[in-house]
Specification:
hydrolase activity; WH_DNA-bd_sf; hydrolase; alpha+beta
Amino acid sequence: MGHPPFAVTVDLVVLTLTGEELCALVVRRGVEPYEGEWALPGGFVRQDEDLSDAARRELAEETGLAPGTVHIEQLAGYGAPDRDPRMRVVTVAYLALAPDLPAPLAGTDAAEARWAPVRSLSAERLAFDHDRILADGLERARAKLEYSPLGTAFCAPEFTVAELRRVYELVWDTRLDPRNFHRKVTGAEGLLEPTGRTTTRDGGRPAQLYRRGKAELLYPPMLRA
């Protein structure tokens, strides 16, 4: 008795900040199944690829960004028997974050690609089980802002505290007290490293410019209050 067809894919939750919105990358499928419907970007893992290599390749194909220029981490695996009508397909999802990503490029099996505000995607139905994968990716990003420097992945190499605070506000979808936030992030060991330079791009008085520090975890965690 032969084994049924089986495949492995990678899917990507790619988040960026566009204007005043937290956005996710979605593609309109150009082939069956779910032709014409919106989905997360992704594809089949090639025979000679590691999972992480496949994820970085798909990210480069969809965004035009070279591997290594975007924060990317493994999110979770999804293997419900009926998640893909073609065959048994197990997917490994990855979370990718970057500031000001360019207009996306539609991959080989996509008819269109766009940045969609996360708040609008909650009212849409994505193909496969991508609604769940997107929700899990958002939960991971929001949670990691509490205890890691992940928020700086949405910033330019040099940024102000106000710019970093806007990242937290958009990802968490809440307003933060500027003075309280400034005190916490500048007091968090290893989170920020002063550059010694200032900028007036926030408006008003010159603001200190920082870069990401060397900390991997934050103690105590950042609080939203």
